[in-house]
């Protein structure tokens, strides 16, 4: 039986409603999935939402709502948008789902038992956006931390760590091997160059826990009830937990046939989450739990939609609401515009003046 074409998107963070960037990524994945269906292939299209983490807990507190209630409300906004835009996914991922939590805890337990996770105390600079501690290797030439890390603050605490650095050479070798074979891990090519440069800078291990004393909205560590797991370690696992992966099975070639028929996936992500999340953490996580080199996914990295050259953000008040556009011009018109006005892998720009006067929206 031929393999299933498996395509995923990033799962969207439920600290705020969807914007045009979310819509672009899901429509892009939907178009690719439809193309493969038209070719007669079996397709498995997975998308969903990331419901845990510090930013969600903080947003819920600001809204004076329990986190579970807050994410339920935001999740529905994403579900409604994909229905509006006719995004035809085959499976929906929510990280509060019990089956997902079982897989995450199973992976954590296995890595802990294998000595891949250890406890240590750390003090240093912490990225609130990426929810991780930073090292000097993340600093720029003038000693500053880049914009990709967002707000950075000094912290001291005890946590659990994943031996990320043990796998550095493996990942470098894999990138080089796949490049020589003409089967890049990352497309477009210039993003793979960026990834390799970032892997070269790996100097420490990854903190994969958060003490419940400051963050209790997450998946509890199976070996320490006083901690929850790092949101990225949780979120990234959705790509396999909702595809039939069984974390109780130690050998990849003994995984359920349904899962092996689907995996590996083509994974659609934005440029801001290639490094370090998907390009480093995710690939090394898969390697650490026994996925062979040939079972590594391919990452298709897209750019951003900007507004007159500036990144869209809530603080700048320049977010474009896809619901409004779909209501005004129709889902098909919006889908066509999103696919035709950006080269995959590059950024695109909305002008300050009304972009919807384009002839593409004139019937």
Short description:
The chain has 363 residues and is an alpha/beta fold. The protein is 37% helix and 21% strand.
Q: How is the secondary structure organized here?
A:
Layout: E1 5-9, E2 12-13, H1 20-38, E3 43-50, H2 54-62, H3 67-84, E4 91-94, H4 98-113, E5 117-127, E6 132-133, E7 152-162, H5 168-180, E8 186-187, H6 189-200, E9 206-207, E10 209-211, E11 220-221, E12 224-229, H7 231-236, H8 238-241, H9 257-262, E13 266-270, H10 274-288, E14 298-302, E15 305-307, E16 310-311, H11 322-329, H12 331-340, E17 348-350
Parallel strand pairs: 1-3, 1-13, 2-3, 3-4, 8-14, 13-14, 15-17
Antiparallel strand pairs: 5-6, 5-7, 7-9, 10-12, 11-12, 15-16
What does the model show?
By secondary structure, the chain is an alpha/beta fold. The protein folds into two domains: 5-115 and 170-202 and 233-350, Rossmann fold (3-Layer(aba) Sandwich), CATH 3.40.50.620; 118-157, no CATH class. Helices cover 37% and strands 21% of the residues. The protein has twelve helices and 17 strands. The protein has helices at 20-38, 54-62, 67-84, 98-113, 168-180, 189-200, 231-236, 238-241, 257-262, 274-288, 322-329, 331-340, and strands spanning 5-9, 12-13, 43-50, 91-94, 117-127, 132-133, 152-162, 186-187, 206-207, 209-211, 220-221, 224-229, 266-270, 298-302, 305-307, 310-311, 348-350. The strands form four sheets. Strands 1, 2, 3, 4, 8, 13 and 14 form a seven-stranded parallel β-sheet that branches. The chain has a four-stranded antiparallel β-sheet with strand order 6-5-7-9. Strands 10-12-11 form a three-stranded antiparallel β-sheet.
């Amino acid at each position: 039986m031929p393999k299933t074409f498996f395509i995923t998107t990033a799962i969207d963070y439920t600290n705020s409603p969807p914007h045009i960037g979310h819509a672009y990524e899901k429509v892009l994945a939907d178009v690719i999935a439809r193309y493969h269906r038209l070719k007669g292939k079996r397709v498995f299209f997975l998308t969903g939402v990331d419901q845990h983490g510090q930013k969600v807990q903080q947003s819920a507190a600001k809204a004076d709502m329990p986190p579970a209630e807050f994410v339920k409300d935001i999740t529905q906004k994403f579900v409604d948008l994909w229905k509006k835009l006719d995004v035809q996914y085959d499976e929906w991922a929510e990280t509060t789902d019990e089956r997902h939590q079982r897989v995450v805890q199973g992976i954590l337990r296995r890595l802990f038992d294998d000595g891949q996770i250890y406890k240590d105390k750390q003090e240093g600079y912490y990225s609130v956006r990426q929810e991780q501690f930073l090292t000097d290797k993340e600093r720029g030439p003038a000693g500053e931390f880049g914009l990709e890390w967002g707000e950075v603050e000094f912290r001291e605490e005890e946590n659990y760590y994943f031996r990320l650095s043990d796998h550095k050479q493996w990942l470098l070798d894999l990138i080089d091997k796949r490049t020589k074979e003409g089967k890049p891990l990352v497309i477009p090519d210039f993003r793979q160059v960026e990834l390799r440069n970032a892997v070269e800078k790996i100097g420490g291990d990854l903190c994969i826990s958060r003490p419940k004393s400051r963050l209790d909205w997450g998946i509890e560590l199976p070996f320490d009830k006083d901690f929850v797991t790092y949101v990225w370690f949780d979120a990234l696992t959705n790509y396999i937990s909702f595809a039939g992966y069984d974390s109780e099975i130690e050998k990849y070639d003994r995984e359920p046939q349904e899962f092996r028929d689907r995996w590996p996936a083509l994974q659609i992500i934005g440029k801001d989450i290639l490094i370090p999340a998907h390009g480093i953490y995710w690939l090394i996580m898969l390697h650490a739990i026994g996925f062979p080199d040939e079972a590594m996914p391919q990452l298709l990295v897209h750019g951003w939609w900007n507004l007159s050259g500036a990144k869209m953000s809530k603080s700048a008040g320049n977010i474009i609401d896809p619901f409004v556009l779909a209501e005004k011009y129709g889902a098909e018109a919006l889908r066509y515009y999103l696919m035709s006005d950006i080269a995959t892998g590059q950024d695109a720009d909305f002008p300050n003046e009304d972009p919807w006067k384009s002839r593409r929206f004139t019937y």
